[in-house]
Amino acid sequence: MRRIVVLLLALTVLLSFVGCKGKASRSDMDDLKKAKVGSYVFIGEYEQDNDESTGKEAIEWLVLDKQEDKMLVISRYGLDCQPYNTEDVDVTWETCSLRKWLNSTFYEAAFIPEEKNVILTSTVTADTNPEYDTPAGNDTTDRVFLLSMVEANRYFADDDARKCQGSPYCHAQGAVKADNGNSWWWLRSPGDEPDRTGDVFYNGSIIDYGTSATLNRGAVRPAMWIYLKP
To answer: 45: helix, coil or strand?
Structure first.
Protein backbone atom coordinates (compact mmCIF):
# COMPACT_ATOMS: atom_id res chain seq x y z
CA MET A 1 0.00 0.00 0.00
CA ARG A 2 2.79 2.42 0.91
CA ARG A 3 4.51 1.71 -2.40
CA ILE A 4 1.31 2.42 -4.30
CA VAL A 5 0.84 5.74 -2.49
CA VAL A 6 4.43 6.77 -3.29
CA LEU A 7 3.96 5.86 -6.95
CA LEU A 8 0.72 7.85 -7.14
CA LEU A 9 2.37 10.90 -5.59
CA ALA A 10 5.28 10.64 -8.02
CA LEU A 11 2.86 10.38 -10.94
CA THR A 12 0.94 13.44 -9.73
CA VAL A 13 4.14 15.49 -9.55
CA LEU A 14 5.17 14.32 -13.01
CA LEU A 15 1.83 15.20 -14.56
CA SER A 16 1.91 18.62 -12.92
CA PHE A 17 5.35 19.26 -14.40
CA VAL A 18 4.30 18.14 -17.88
CA GLY A 19 1.31 20.47 -17.71
CA CYS A 20 3.34 23.47 -16.67
CA LYS A 21 4.24 24.51 -20.21
CA GLY A 22 0.65 24.83 -21.38
CA LYS A 23 -0.53 26.39 -18.13
CA ALA A 24 2.29 28.94 -18.19
CA SER A 25 1.47 29.81 -21.77
CA ARG A 26 -2.16 30.63 -20.89
CA SER A 27 -1.03 32.63 -17.87
CA ASP A 28 1.43 34.54 -20.03
CA MET A 29 -1.37 35.45 -22.45
CA ASP A 30 -3.33 37.02 -19.58
CA ASP A 31 -0.22 39.01 -18.67
CA LEU A 32 0.21 40.10 -22.28
CA LYS A 33 -3.34 41.43 -22.46
CA LYS A 34 -2.81 43.48 -19.29
CA ALA A 35 0.59 44.88 -20.32
CA LYS A 36 1.00 48.56 -21.15
CA VAL A 37 3.42 50.34 -23.45
CA GLY A 38 6.75 50.64 -21.67
CA SER A 39 6.22 47.55 -19.51
CA TYR A 40 7.92 44.17 -19.85
CA VAL A 41 6.39 40.79 -20.63
CA PHE A 42 7.69 37.25 -21.00
CA ILE A 43 7.14 34.89 -23.90
CA GLY A 44 9.45 32.20 -25.23
CA GLU A 45 12.78 30.91 -23.96
CA TYR A 46 16.34 31.24 -25.26
CA GLU A 47 19.82 30.53 -23.97
CA GLN A 48 20.93 33.71 -22.17
CA ASP A 49 23.13 32.97 -19.14
CA ASN A 50 25.64 31.06 -21.31
CA ASP A 51 25.25 27.99 -19.14
CA GLU A 52 23.41 25.38 -21.18
CA SER A 53 23.30 23.02 -18.19
CA THR A 54 20.63 25.24 -16.61
CA GLY A 55 18.42 25.18 -19.70
CA LYS A 56 17.00 28.14 -21.58
CA GLU A 57 15.88 31.34 -19.83
CA ALA A 58 12.56 33.15 -20.31
CA ILE A 59 12.79 35.98 -22.85
CA GLU A 60 11.84 39.42 -21.56
CA TRP A 61 10.23 41.80 -24.06
CA LEU A 62 9.63 45.55 -23.97
CA VAL A 63 6.17 46.62 -25.15
CA LEU A 64 6.62 49.32 -27.80
CA ASP A 65 3.07 49.68 -29.11
CA LYS A 66 -0.33 48.29 -28.22
CA GLN A 67 -3.47 48.32 -30.31
CA GLU A 68 -6.90 46.78 -29.79
CA ASP A 69 -5.94 43.24 -30.81
CA LYS A 70 -2.15 43.22 -31.05
CA MET A 71 1.03 44.66 -29.62
CA LEU A 72 4.59 45.21 -30.78
CA VAL A 73 7.44 43.98 -28.60
CA ILE A 74 11.24 43.97 -28.80
CA SER A 75 13.61 41.91 -26.70
CA ARG A 76 14.86 43.79 -23.66
CA TYR A 77 18.38 42.43 -24.12
CA GLY A 78 20.50 41.53 -27.10
CA LEU A 79 19.86 37.80 -27.40
CA ASP A 80 22.49 36.69 -29.87
CA CYS A 81 25.30 37.90 -32.10
CA GLN A 82 24.86 37.46 -35.84
CA PRO A 83 26.05 39.32 -38.94
CA TYR A 84 23.33 41.11 -40.86
CA ASN A 85 24.45 39.15 -43.88
CA THR A 86 26.96 36.35 -44.23
CA GLU A 87 28.07 37.33 -47.76
CA ASP A 88 29.88 40.53 -48.69
CA VAL A 89 27.39 41.72 -51.29
CA ASP A 90 24.80 44.48 -51.68
CA VAL A 91 21.95 43.54 -49.37
CA THR A 92 18.57 44.62 -48.04
CA TRP A 93 16.36 43.29 -45.25
CA GLU A 94 14.51 41.27 -47.89
CA THR A 95 17.64 39.34 -48.90
CA CYS A 96 19.77 39.30 -45.72
CA SER A 97 20.74 36.11 -43.89
CA LEU A 98 19.69 37.57 -40.52
CA ARG A 99 16.07 37.72 -41.66
CA LYS A 100 16.21 34.03 -42.54
CA TRP A 101 17.91 33.19 -39.23
CA LEU A 102 15.33 35.06 -37.15
CA ASN A 103 12.38 33.40 -38.86
CA SER A 104 13.82 29.89 -38.79
CA THR A 105 16.61 29.11 -36.32
CA PHE A 106 15.64 31.64 -33.66
CA TYR A 107 11.90 31.22 -34.08
CA GLU A 108 12.08 27.44 -33.77
CA ALA A 109 14.47 27.55 -30.80
CA ALA A 110 12.60 30.19 -28.80
CA PHE A 111 8.91 29.33 -29.03
CA ILE A 112 6.67 26.35 -28.36
CA PRO A 113 3.57 25.78 -30.58
CA GLU A 114 1.21 27.60 -28.19
CA GLU A 115 3.43 30.68 -28.35
CA LYS A 116 3.84 30.48 -32.12
CA ASN A 117 0.05 30.63 -32.40
CA VAL A 118 0.01 34.21 -31.07
CA ILE A 119 2.98 35.55 -33.07
CA LEU A 120 1.57 37.34 -36.09
CA THR A 121 2.92 37.13 -39.60
CA SER A 122 3.29 40.84 -40.29
CA THR A 123 4.01 43.06 -43.25
CA VAL A 124 7.46 44.50 -42.62
CA THR A 125 7.94 47.68 -44.61
CA ALA A 126 11.10 48.40 -46.58
CA ASP A 127 11.75 51.67 -44.74
CA THR A 128 14.35 53.82 -46.43
CA ASN A 129 17.29 55.51 -44.78
CA PRO A 130 16.20 59.06 -43.81
CA GLU A 131 19.60 60.51 -44.75
CA TYR A 132 20.82 58.41 -47.68
CA ASP A 133 19.12 57.31 -50.88
CA THR A 134 20.19 53.69 -50.52
CA PRO A 135 17.94 50.95 -52.00
CA ALA A 136 15.82 49.38 -49.25
CA GLY A 137 14.36 46.46 -51.23
CA ASN A 138 10.74 45.34 -51.00
CA ASP A 139 8.28 44.88 -48.17
CA THR A 140 8.34 41.42 -46.62
CA THR A 141 6.09 39.25 -44.49
CA ASP A 142 7.77 37.99 -41.33
CA ARG A 143 6.98 36.68 -37.89
CA VAL A 144 10.19 38.06 -36.38
CA PHE A 145 12.08 41.10 -37.64
CA LEU A 146 14.35 44.02 -36.74
CA LEU A 147 13.20 47.58 -36.22
CA SER A 148 13.92 50.14 -38.94
CA MET A 149 15.50 53.53 -38.30
CA VAL A 150 12.07 55.13 -38.60
CA GLU A 151 10.65 52.75 -35.99
CA ALA A 152 13.63 53.11 -33.66
CA ASN A 153 12.94 56.86 -33.65
CA ARG A 154 9.18 56.42 -33.31
CA TYR A 155 9.03 53.92 -30.48
CA PHE A 156 11.92 55.12 -28.29
CA ALA A 157 11.78 58.52 -26.62
CA ASP A 158 15.50 59.25 -26.87
CA ASP A 159 18.99 57.80 -27.12
CA ASP A 160 18.96 56.70 -23.50
CA ALA A 161 15.86 54.58 -24.06
CA ARG A 162 17.52 52.84 -27.01
CA LYS A 163 20.56 51.66 -25.02
CA CYS A 164 20.81 47.90 -24.84
CA GLN A 165 22.84 45.35 -22.95
CA GLY A 166 23.52 41.95 -24.39
CA SER A 167 22.98 38.72 -22.49
CA PRO A 168 26.07 36.75 -21.36
CA TYR A 169 25.36 34.32 -24.20
CA CYS A 170 25.14 37.21 -26.70
CA HIS A 171 28.59 38.43 -25.65
CA ALA A 172 29.99 34.91 -25.71
CA GLN A 173 28.87 34.68 -29.34
CA GLY A 174 30.95 37.76 -30.20
CA ALA A 175 28.86 40.86 -29.51
CA VAL A 176 31.00 43.80 -28.41
CA LYS A 177 30.51 44.99 -24.83
CA ALA A 178 31.39 48.62 -24.16
CA ASP A 179 32.74 49.97 -20.85
CA ASN A 180 29.20 50.95 -19.87
CA GLY A 181 28.02 47.37 -20.44
CA ASN A 182 26.02 48.22 -23.56
CA SER A 183 26.18 46.59 -26.98
CA TRP A 184 25.38 48.08 -30.36
CA TRP A 185 22.46 46.42 -32.15
CA TRP A 186 21.27 45.97 -35.71
CA LEU A 187 18.43 47.80 -37.45
CA ARG A 188 16.97 46.64 -40.74
CA SER A 189 17.34 49.92 -42.71
CA PRO A 190 20.23 50.25 -45.15
CA GLY A 191 23.27 52.40 -44.36
CA ASP A 192 24.94 54.89 -46.67
CA GLU A 193 26.01 52.11 -49.05
CA PRO A 194 24.17 48.97 -50.22
CA ASP A 195 26.57 46.71 -48.30
CA ARG A 196 26.11 48.57 -45.02
CA THR A 197 23.23 48.46 -42.53
CA GLY A 198 21.96 50.89 -39.91
CA ASP A 199 22.45 50.21 -36.22
CA VAL A 200 22.07 51.66 -32.73
CA PHE A 201 25.35 52.61 -31.05
CA TYR A 202 26.39 51.92 -27.45
CA ASN A 203 25.07 55.32 -26.34
CA GLY A 204 21.69 54.72 -27.98
CA SER A 205 22.20 56.99 -30.98
CA ILE A 206 21.11 55.76 -34.41
CA ILE A 207 24.03 55.33 -36.82
CA ASP A 208 22.46 56.21 -40.17
CA TYR A 209 25.63 55.60 -42.22
CA GLY A 210 25.61 52.10 -40.80
CA THR A 211 28.09 49.28 -40.36
CA SER A 212 29.40 46.62 -42.73
CA ALA A 213 26.63 44.06 -43.02
CA THR A 214 29.07 41.16 -42.62
CA LEU A 215 30.49 42.33 -39.30
CA ASN A 216 29.73 39.64 -36.73
CA ARG A 217 29.93 41.89 -33.65
CA GLY A 218 26.44 43.35 -33.32
CA ALA A 219 23.70 42.25 -30.93
CA VAL A 220 20.36 41.03 -32.24
CA ARG A 221 17.17 42.42 -30.70
CA PRO A 222 14.24 40.58 -32.29
CA ALA A 223 10.90 42.34 -32.61
CA MET A 224 7.46 40.92 -33.36
CA TRP A 225 3.74 41.60 -33.25
CA ILE A 226 1.69 39.49 -30.81
CA TYR A 227 -1.98 38.76 -31.37
CA LEU A 228 -3.95 39.40 -28.18
CA LYS A 229 -7.20 37.67 -29.12
CA PRO A 230 -6.25 34.12 -30.14
So the answer is: strand
The predicted model scores a pTM of: 0.87
Give just the sign of the alpha carbon dihedral 225, 204, 221, 136.
Answer: positive
Closest CA to 162 of 125, 199, 196, 129: 199
Every domain of the chain and the residues it spans:
36-227
The per-residue pLDDT string of the chain (230 residues; one tens digit each, 9 = 90 and over) reads 444 333 333 333 333 323 333 333 434 678 888 999 999 999 999 999 999 999 999 999 999 999 999 999 999 999 999 999 999 999 999 999 999 999 999 999 999 999 999 999 999 999 999 999 999 999 999 999 999 999 999 999 999 999 999 999 999 999 999 998 999 999 999 999 999 999 999 999 999 999 999 999 999 999 999 999 86
Q: Phi and psi for 218 in degrees, rounded to 5?
A: -95, 145
The number of beta carbons lying within 10 Å of the beta carbon of residue 210 is 24
Burial of 19 (0-12, 13-18, 19+ CB in 10 A): exposed
**Three-state DSSP class for 73?**
strand
- Which of 160, 124, 117 is CA-nearest to residue 139? 124
CA dihedral 19, 25, 30, 31 (to 10 degrees): 120
Q: What residues contact 133, with CB distance under 8 A and at least 6 apart?
A: none
190 within 8 A of 210, measured Cβ to Cβ: yes
> Chain-centre distance of CA 166, in angstroms?
12
CA nearest neighbour of 190 among 94, 100, 97? 94
